[in-house]
Design brief:
Strand order of the largest sheet: 1-2-3-4
Number of helices: 10
Number of strands: 6
Oligomer: single chain
Structural class: alpha+beta
Helix content: 25-40%
Length: 306
């Protein structure tokens, strides 16, 4: 039974400073200078000596949208009973509301998000799992080119559109399994490798944004008969056969200059890409410097490898 009746509570008016009234065990009423009456539940979770406080979401009162005295006492008793059993209901409720708000915010943001915009955001904010670093500049350029139209050369020749350009203006939340299958089938006319590469990027973008496409042919949960099977990402390597390395080594010595000869032989010995040796200003790759070479240990530090 409450310690104060409704009539007794109504006799307490706002003052110059906020003050509290105890209405029931663990339940207080805070009256602010502007007359706002807030209900506070005080509780301690089993196993903890820390007393916590939770503000009921409704203001105290008998009007619409307000919570009455009896209801407030019952709610406080429920929260305190759960706390005695080790359940911090207010903390769980706060976490649930935060998750719902974040989900609503994400849905609102994705309402007008196209595939192109989603891919650009992925490229801008994605961090590599192995080291937390952003995607490499060359990787970013490759991904962004997928949603761009093909350029026209000086001779007027139209180059091929990006691998995902047909889907670029499609709303991400409206993307269907048929859209994905049709795009994949279209890309197969170019090459299996390019089609797989585009689907790997599209799958990563969908996962990163948390978008679930019903019957997604790229999804792990899709039946095998309906799934697009992608080849593992291996790039497009063309290694020199071991039996030809000697010929390449001899040919490198016939380069126009000693610098060029050393450059080619270093590539043969270390397996480096050209950009990893002399750098690439377009993608902001640093070149190898003198301090990166340890002749005694026979080691070279590569700053940014593929």
């Amino acid at each position: 039974m409450p310690l104060l009746t409704v009539r007794a509570i109504e006799t307490h008016k706002a003052k110059a400073k906020p003050y509290k009234l105890t209405l029931d065990r663990g339940l207080q009423l805070r009256i602010a200078p502007d007359g706002v009456r807030t209900l506070l539940v005080r509780y301690s979770v089993k196993g903890s000596d820390v007393e916590r406080q939770y503000r009921l979401p409704q203001e105290y009162g008998e009007g619409p949208g307000q919570i009455k005295l009896a209801t407030a006492c019952a709610e406080a008793a429920r929260i305190r009973a759960l706390a005695r059993d080790g359940v911090d209901w207010p903390a769980q409720e706060e976490a649930r509301l935060r998750a719902e708000a974040a989900e609503r915010e994400q849905m609102d943001r994705q309402e007008g998000m196209t595939v192109a915009k989603a891919l650009r955001e992925y490229v801008d904010k994605k961090r590599r799992a192995k080291d937390g670093l952003p995607l490499k500049a060359r990787t970013k350029a490759d991904y962004l080119a997928m949603v761009e139209p093909g350029e026209t050369t000086k001779t007027g020749k139209k180059l091929a559109d990006g691998l995902l350009f047909q889907l670029a203006d499609k709303l991400l939340l409206k993307l269907t399994s048929d859209d994905i299958r049709n795009q994949y089938s279209s890309l197969l006319k170019r090459s299996k490798r390019q089609a797989d590469y585009a689907m790997q990027v599209l799958r990563a973008v969908l996962r990163w944004h948390g978008v679930v496409v019903p019957g997604n042919p790229l999804g792990r949960d899709t039946a095998g008969r309906d799934r697009i099977v992608l080849a593992p990402a291996k790039g497009n390597p063309a290694p020199i056969p071991p039996e030809r390395l000697g010929a390449w080594w001899r040919a490198s010595g016939k380069a126009p200059s000693q610098v060029a000869a050393d450059y080619y032989r270093f590539q043969l010995l270390a397996g480096c890409r050209g950009g990893e040796i002399h750098g690439d200003k377009r993608y902001n790759y640093p070149p190898i410097r003198v301090g990166d070479v340890d002749c005694e240990a026979g080691k070279v530090v590569l700053r940014d490898t593929k």
